[in-house]
Every structure is written in structure tokens, then in C-alpha cells.
Amino acid sequence: MNQPVEGVDARTDRFAQGAVGVALLAAFVFRVPWLVPGLSLLLAVGAVAGPQASGLLRAFERWVIPRLPAPRSAEPEVPVPAPTVRAQDALAAVILAVASLAFLLGIAIVGWALALAEAVIAIVAATTRIHVGDRLRRAL
Fold this sequence. Notes:
By secondary structure, the protein is mostly helical. Helices cover 69% and strands 3% of the residues.
């Protein structure tokens, strides 16, 4: 299922942001620091190449959306603009890259603090559609 050029299905974006948040929280709880650089790389691909290259978005579109019932609302949800998704992915990739560097340098407390901060940012985006990355992009 191909997305229109102007945006990404809002359900797909919510899934991706929620998955990032939950994965980072699980990484913290179970002390799996290697998940942080893995997510950083995954999100960096989406930030650089765009939503069409994001593994999380593509997985949801391919395996979950076809199994979902049609939306009941007469008005479809407004798609999330592609630049918003890219900015959010870029912010997450940078935060998680710095967290990965902190782990590599043996400063685990800083790495976990950054990973948890990104988990909160992702969960806020998933639940409220407030994308901190996009707000920063617009401010700069």
C-alpha cells in the first residue's frame, strides 16, 4: 500500500512512534543497551531517505493495515506530513546516537537518560500527534 506523497497515514505514524517508545522502555527495563544504536540506525534511514524507506512504517503498512477494519469515521484522519515524520526520525536518531556514544564511553547513566527522554518524546508523538522534531525543525 503506497502512501500519498503529501503524508503518512496517521495510524502508521502512531504505531512507529509507539513502537520506538515501548522498545526504548523495554531496553531500559531489561538493560539491553545494544537496542539503542539499533533503533538509532533504523530511524536514521527513515530520516535520510524519507518515510518510504522507514522499516517501522513499511512493516505496519504491509502486515497490520490490511488486517484492520475500515475506519468508522466519515472523515479520514489527516495524514502526517512527510517532513514531520522525517524531522521526528532525525531527532530520535541524533538523541539515540548520542546515547549510544555515552554507552560506548562507559557513561551508562547518560545513555539511559537520553534513551528514556527519547522514549517520552516518541510516546508523546504517538498519543498527542505533537512531534518535537517537527517543532524544532520549524524553529530552526
